[in-house]
């Protein structure tokens, strides 16, 4: 019954239910799990959202389209959509993940949603996956305001440095902690020309880099604080 309710929210039944089962299986539970489906779904999601933005905003330059896409496919956005679907209650997690609240973790929810997209593609082709994605994203696409899409910290920092003819930032992973299914990355951002070093922490290398870049950008803007 639970799966039927999820399928109704997704707007489709799976011809091969085992694909949906795999998409909802976290690696902590066992194999086959959703990692490969997540890889596939991520690519399909980016393609569909990019194409839809291209159609909706024919006059926007590439940079603005890229930022809008990034905002729509980022982890937190995916996790929010997964929350609307109550996806956490459908996930199959190992005992450790269950105890630590993995069914609420944004990274796990986002990965599962991407895996479902990959499963839909394998089950019934690209058009089916595209229809499902656009249905899930329709409220977000309607509410989207290109003027309010902020640049991410790494982009802000890079543009700031280039405008002042400084060298580009360097990012180095200085530590990776935790189990494979729940890693924490520590990344250092170095601005050689300004003698600034900052450290960011996140559950992915990208998020850690963004956090380090944000701190570096603030320090570059306000060097005497």
Task: Record the SSE blueprint.
Layout: H1 2-10, H2 17-23, H3 35-56, H4 62-73, H5 75-84, H6 95-99, H7 106-124, H8 126-143, H9 153-163, E1 170-177, E2 184-191, E3 196-202, H10 205-221
Antiparallel strand pairs: 1-2, 2-3
Helix pairs in contact: 2-7, 3-4, 3-7, 3-8, 5-7, 7-8, 9-10
Largest sheet: 3 strands, antiparallel
Shape: globular
Return the structural class.
Answer: mainly alpha
Residue share in β-strands: 5-15%
Distance between the termini: 58 Å
Please trace the helix and strand order, writing H or E for each element: HHHHHHHHHEEEH
Q: What integer is the average pLDDT?
A: 91
Q: Name the poorly predicted regions.
A: none
- Measured as a percent range, the helix fraction is 55-70%
Could you tell me the number of beta strands?
A: 3
Work out the count of structural domains: 2
What is the CATH architecture term of the largest domain?
A: Orthogonal Bundle
Helical segment tally? 10
CATH class of the largest domain, named Mainly Alpha
CATH fold-level label of the largest domain = Ribonuclease iii, N-terminal Endonuclease Domain, Chain A
Strand order of the largest sheet: 1-2-3
Rg over alpha carbons: 20 Å
CATH homologous superfamily identity of the largest domain: Ribonuclease III domain
């Amino acid at each position: 019954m639970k799966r039927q309710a999820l399928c109704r929210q997704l707007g489709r039944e799976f011809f091969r239910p085992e694909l949906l089962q795999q998409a909802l299986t976290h690696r902590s539970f066992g194999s086959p799990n959703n990692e490969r489906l997540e890889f596939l779904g991520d690519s399909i999601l980016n393609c569909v959202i990019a194409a839809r933005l291209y159609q909706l905003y024919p006059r926007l330059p590439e940079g603005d389209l890229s930022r809008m896409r990034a905002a729509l496919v980022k982890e937190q956005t995916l996790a929010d959509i997964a929350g609307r679907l109550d996806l956490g209650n459908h996930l199959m997690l190992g005992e450790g993940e269950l105890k630590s609240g993995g069914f609420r973790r944004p990274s796990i929810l986002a990965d599962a949603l991407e895996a479902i997209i990959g499963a839909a593609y394998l089950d019934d082709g690209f058009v089916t996956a595209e229809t499902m994605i656009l249905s899930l994203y329709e409220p977000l696409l309607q509410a989207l305001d290109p003027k309010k899409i902020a640049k991410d910290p790494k982009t802000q920092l890079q543009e700031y440095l280039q405008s002042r003819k400084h060298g580009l930032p360097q990012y180095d992973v200085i530590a990776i902690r935790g189990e494979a299914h729940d890693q924490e990355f520590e990344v250092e951002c170095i601005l050689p020309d300004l003698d600034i070093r900052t450290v960011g922490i996140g559950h992915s290398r990208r998020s850690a880099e963004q956090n380090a870049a944000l701190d570096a950008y603030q320090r570059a803007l306000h060097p005497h604080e």
